[in-house]
Amino acid sequence: MHYITFLYETTREEWLSSADSIELRGYNPCTWASSEFSDLQLPVNALAYNICPTSRDIYLDRVINQETEQTWERYKGRVIDKIYKLIHKECKEYASTSTASDFDLYNYLTGKSDTILDVAKDRYKDVLKKIPQLPAGPDVTRFDEALKKIVLFEALVTAARMNFELARMQAANPEHIFQEYFEFNTDFKLAARHQGFTPPATPDFIYRHKVMGDIKSGKWHQFMEYTVVAYALAFEEHTGDDMDFGVILHVDLPQSRLVPAHYHTDLIFLDDKKREKFFALRDRKLQIVADESDPGTPATKDECNPECPFLSSCWDA
Ligand code: SF4
Question: What is the model's pTM?
Fold first, then answer.
């Protein structure tokens, strides 16, 4: 997650002059959901998840409350999310209690690796128990090993940035440097009823009050961008401030690398076009739930995303 600081510093300039072009801000009433849905709010993730060509997923999920099975992929995603938040917390605490003369974040964090992974896995042990079919033992072991790459990479990136600043300042304070370069808020709670979101909307992270962040793993989908658009709108409704950028920290852990792969992670400028696309999706989904109307399946199963959790409900029932 701290990798985002480098992305922000190197790429935001090219977009800054375009920020004034955004008109569809979350605090602007023209972006709010229709008043006919004023009593209806749905979670950001349910509204932003554009897996289905007909949006039948929202009908199954929210109208007939069709349950979906826990999966190994979902468990892995939750553990990965948690690891990033724990790493940030550890770094912040370490920076606030160390001095320039004893600062050694890299060794501190890598020394905490096993503890961080255990805490994250323990947090979701109940989810693990509900997965009907766990992968073979070697796959589970491989996942455990791969998680260590996240801690190693974050330790390298964070320590490098911190040490760069420490090296060029005579009177250096690690806590102040950390606050300046790694200002991530992972506990923001947003109330955005007009956008149609169930309160509180809780984004994975907000960087410097400037970048809305979401952590995703598993196969990359372009529609993942809807999530940061939605949270940016929620932020704007909640605070009255502008949110121009989003980022999906997409985490892949290939065996061929010693570090995580973030191939799809870029700073995204949240222009009006992206916002309009989200409004169309949000309003379609709110309408389906308000009317309790089944939009039906596409003509063939081939048009469905093989990762959709409702495949058996739609096609094998
Ligand atoms: S299985 Fe197909 S029709 Fe059913 S919710 Fe998923 S994508 Fe939509």
Answer: 0.93
